[in-house]
Amino acid sequence: MSGDKSKKHNPSKSQDLRSKDNKSKPQKDAKKGKDKDGDEEMTVVMPPSKSTGADPNSDVTANGTSDEKEQEIIDPKVKASNDIKANVGLLERAVSQFDPRFTLRVLRSIPSIRKQLSADLLVRAITEIYTTPTPTSFALLKALSDEDTFPKAEADAWYKKKDGAQSTPQKSQTPPKDILPEVDVYFSILLQVYFYDTKNIESGAQFSEALIGHLRTLNRRTLDSLAARAYFYYSLFFEETAPLPPSPNAAVVSIRKELLDALRTATLRKDQDTQASVTTLLLRNYLSTSHITQADLLISHTQVPDSAANNQVARYLYYLGRIRAIQLSYSEAHDHLIGATRKAPTSYKASGFYQASTKLLIVVELLMGDIPDRAVFRQPSLEKSLAPYLQLVQAVSSGDVNGFQNLTAKYNATFRADNTYTLILRLRQNVIKTGIRMMSLSYARISLRDMCLRLGLDSEESAEYIVAKAIRDGVIEASLDHEHGFMKSKDVGDVYSSQEPFDAYSSRIRACLALHDESVKAMRFPMNQHRLELKNAQEARERERELAKEIVDGEMDEDDGPGGDFEGL
Amino acid sequence: MPSAVGSSSLEQVQHTLAQCLQRKDAAGAQVQLQKAKLILLQQNALVPNPDTPASQLKTARSMLEVGALLSIRTKDPESFVRYYSQLQPFYEYPGLQSAPSTKRSQITGLYLLLLLSQGDYAGFHTLLESLIVSEGISGNKSLEDDPYIKYPVDLERSLMEGSYDQVWRKTSGRDVPGEEFALFSEILVHTIRSEIASCAARSYPSLSIASAKNLLFLDSEGAVREFAQEQGWSLEEGRIYFPGLPDEKKGDEGDQKEVISHMVQYARDLESIV
Q: Which domain of life is it from (chain B) (predicted)?
């Protein structure tokens, strides 16, 4: 792709000019006219966020209803191509109004278009949108030209048209609309999706590489969320390129430099979408080849922007949780993983992430000595995949050492595939501790020999040391008698007289306060709203002053003036 | 021309180095090793890059391995860590994958043991995780079959579990996979001894000196007395009495302070909400 050329073709500065262009386009005249109204309204009367919030909604309903009507008659392919065209319009508005929410809406529509994507559809859309050829459109078509379903005739016709257009002077037509780089990148992402869905990994990887090179040359804030998505697919292609990740010379290793470059550029440009997305991609990259130290270093040297998208934050927290779990800081890992599971989308399509983070969370909870809630395992999207973990929890909670050993042997492959195997191996000591606690609760006095047999330990001596350690770590309240070889449990005190209830209460209060803080942070405050209020207040004050003046003029009473003022405020 | 001279002298150095090692002359070996590293550096072989022939890289790798083992023998952990980090690029270098080093697992095992003896469990598990992942793909022999790796892994498991007698038996018995590994035994025994001491102080009301000797893996009753004095335990009539836990009262005070600080915090948060 020739990035700089296309940039020249698109004088990307003057926004007024573009909106005029949009208006001059006949096919969208009606809609644009309405938009204009909305814009004027926004600037004059209403607070901006409200109007922009309402405006796209009305737009959606208009589009939606028309689409629904069409849907009954027209097949989904046509709908998809209509959607693509509508999205181009949205992107233009995103640029002209500098509102990233339009871009996000475009990105959200990708899953619905995804199913219908084909080379045929893409070529049609490209030839329709690019009325005049740009280097990007050539590159897009060229990338598609190897596909089986590539409509050669259409493309040829387009090439011819373009030849014709070049030969005939353009004065008779309206001046050609410039294609925004956003639209270029949008089509590139559609292409990436198409390549990925058709498992055409190799051309996808090549195309993505070129796209990333092109993106580097562009510095537009309206591109940020699109660029983030482009990087996502870029990394995805290389993950599936042989040699596959766990080997030290995997293909993913080769893109680390690119991603790190992208991270640096994004951070310098305050491009928060790309920054967050590339950080998670890098973490995933490092963890796939189990370069945990590097991943840890990356975390300590970077930070994910606060305004990052929810999904990126969820991913980031998941990877962070995994790294911390491996490093044995379980409580930290637990916090991160709780965040990840709560932020995870619960829709059916994203259940993979939810499952993975829940699995890890369960293991970390077990390692911390907690028993996960039974309700976790009953959720429909988790029930099946968590079955081995449920058995694991049962073994740990009953302190069944032998059962635990059998489980790890039985589900070895499953746990390895989930990347939880090493963590689960560490659980053995927890199982033993639980076993000891059970025995300490049930017996006032028990011989070490019996304990050794029940726990399946190697020797009585081991049992003695293990019990001693459990006592020191505060797992049980007991004492040992070495000469006679038994453990004597101490009476269990009343839980409610201990520190326990206070701690539980305090942790709940903390959670509630954190929730409150987060929801305050999550609220969206309309820009310039306070000015409107100020204005109203000012007007009210002036009215009051006039009133006060009249009163003063009329009655010449000194006390009434300030009194009236006070009431007004 | 210079490279030819270099390689011939490198062979010479290698030869003398081997002789030194056979005579167990650590100082002499160090000198030879310095020379070898200098020559390798001149040939640009100390960091793997595609321009250097694989045979030279292989020599460099084995030199570094010898250096790593030597620094363990001279009880110089810092130098060992340096060698270990230098070796990593060689192990990951694609050009050398066809001829994997035989000493790799030995070096890795020693490094694991070093982390263990330093109490760096996070580092230990981080390394172990990557080993298990790479084992999963290469599919050759599993970690559990590799004596050099199995040894530190087992030790760690016993340590975490609290079966200190296992640690004692493993570090002193035939299970130790090599003489370099045995050098760590002393440190580990010292570690478990202090662990056992702190456990015993909490779990036994009193202990006879004879049983304390067994529990702590000490050689004589005199050693027990010495150890008890170090720990501040009182000896009476052939029994050890552990001082009670003095921190209970302090704990109460701490609790009150904690409660107050919590309450103040709640009040502050409430105020910010209202």
A: Eukaryota
Say whether A506 and B262 touch across the interface (CB within 8 A). Answer: yes
The question of ipTM being above 0.85 is answered as: no
- The residue in chain A having the minimum alpha-carbon distance to the alpha carbon of residue B130 is A290
What is the 3-state secondary structure of chain B? CHHHHHHHHHHHHHHHHHHHHHCCCHHHHHHHHHHHHHHHHHCCCCCCCCCCCHHHHHHHHHHHHHHHHHHHHCCCHHHHHHHHHHHHHHHHCHHHCCCCCCCHHHHHHHHHHHHHHCCCHHHHHHHHHHHHHHHHHHCCCCHHHCHHHHHHHHHHHHHHHCCHHHHHHHHHCCCCCCHHHHCCHHHHHHHHHHHHHHHHHHHCCEEEHHHHHHHCCCCCHHHHHHHHHHHCCEEECCEEECCCCCHHHHHHHHHHHHHHHHHHHHHHHHHHHC
Q: Which chain A residues have a beta carbon less than 8 Å from that of B273?
A: 516
Q: Which chain B residues contact residue A244 at CB under 8 A?
A: 137
Residue B63 near residue B34, CB atoms below 8 Å = no
> Which two three-digit tokens encode residue A496?
């409610």
B73 Cα to chain A: minimum distance (Å): 27
Q: Which residues of A touch B213 (CB under 8 A)?
A: none
What pLDDT does residue B27 have?
A: 74
Per residue in A193-221, pLDDT tens? 888 888 888 888 888 888 888 888 887 77
Is A228 in a helix, a strand, or coil? helix
Q: Flag if B165 and A466 touch (Cβ within 8 Å).
A: no
In this predicted structure, what is the pLDDT of residue A17? 38
**Listed residue (A423, A408, A425) closest to A326, CA to CA:** A423
Domains (ranges, CATH) in chain B?
Answer: 1-101 (1.25.40.990), 103-197 (1.25.40.990), 204-274 (no CATH)
CB contact under 8 A, A292 and B130: yes
What's the mean pLDDT when you consider all of chain A? 75
Q: Bridge-partner residues for A349, per DSSP?
A: none
**In chain A, which residues have their Cβ closer than 8 Å to the Cβ of B94?**
248-249
What whole-number distance in Å separates Cα of residue B217 and Cα of residue B202?
Answer: 18
Smallest Cβ–Cβ distance between A469 and the set B199, B204, B269 belongs to: B199
* Cα A64 to Cα A50: distance, rounded to the nearest angstrom: 21
Question: How big is the CA angle at B75 (ends B73 and B76), to the nearest 5 degrees?
Answer: 115
CA–CA distance, B232 with B243 (Å, rounded to integer)? 8
Contact A499 B255 (CB under 8 A): yes
Out of A465, A478, A509, whose CB is closest to B165?
Answer: A465
For the entire predicted model, the pTM comes to 0.71
Cβ-based burial of A279 (10 A; exposed 0-12, middle 13-18, buried ≥19): buried
Q: Do A290 and B133 touch (CB under 8 A)?
A: yes
For A256, half-sphere exposure in the C-beta direction (CA atoms, 13 angstrom radius) is 18
Distance spanning both ends of chain B, measured CA to CA? 84
What are residue A447's DSSP bridge partners? A486
